[in-house]
Amino acid sequence: MREPEGVLDARYSSEGTSAHDWSEAEKVLTESELFWISTVRPDGRPHVTPLLAVWHGGALHFGTGPGERKAANLAGNPHVVLTTGTSSWTEGYDVTVEGEAVRVTDDGRLRELAAAWEAKYGPFWHYEVDDGCFRHGPGRALVFAVRPRKVLGFGKGEPFSQTKWE
Predict the structure, then answer these.
(1) Where is the Pyridoxamine 5'-phosphate oxidase N-terminal domain (predicted)?
(2) Residue 12 carries which DSSP code?
(3) Which residues of 88-105 are buried (b: 16+ CB within 10 A; e: fewer)?
């Protein structure tokens, strides 16, 4: 699989800046601990909340309890935006991923993801896999994959940049 080619948006970039490599965005997606997910409520209002996510196999994966607002929103509209990066204006690299959240139910794939979660976040986030879900103590989590349709990378501090991958 070849890497996506980034396109610089000069309107939001410092003069003389070039598009960033996909590897830089992928590094942020792999290493970031906290992500913010935006979903849409049934009445059209946005819903934003922090969560943990794992970049694995070319997709961002996250979990949510079946009774949570995210799960209800996704049942009606699977389109999401996941955002991560730093909260600094003068340094760092922020990344947004737009796509469709698709439920992962295959137990074999869920076991791979459970191992990836624990490798990234430590033993507190050890999940068992049961009947197409993650289990953590008495709780159950639905797992979703988001294959990016569009990714934006924002370089902060001089030089500022905005790179788009589709």
Answers:
(1) 24-122
(2) G
(3) eeeeebbbbbbbebeebe
Residue 52 and residue 25: Cα distance in Å, rounded? 17
CB atoms within 10 A of CB 5: 12
Cβ within 8 Å of residue 96, ≥6 positions away: 81, 82, 83, 151, 152, 154
pTM: 0.95
3-state secondary structure of 91: coil
The position carrying tokens 């070039």 is 18
CA distance 110 to 9: 37
Domains defined for the chain, CATH in brackets: 7-165 (2.30.110.10)
Retrieve residue 6's tokens: 């980034």
Which one-letter amino acid corresponds to residue 158?
E
Please enumerate in sequence order all residues whose Cβ is within 8 A of that of 88, keeping only pairs 6 or more positions apart, or say none: 156, 157
> What is the pLDDT, as a whole number, of residue 91?
92
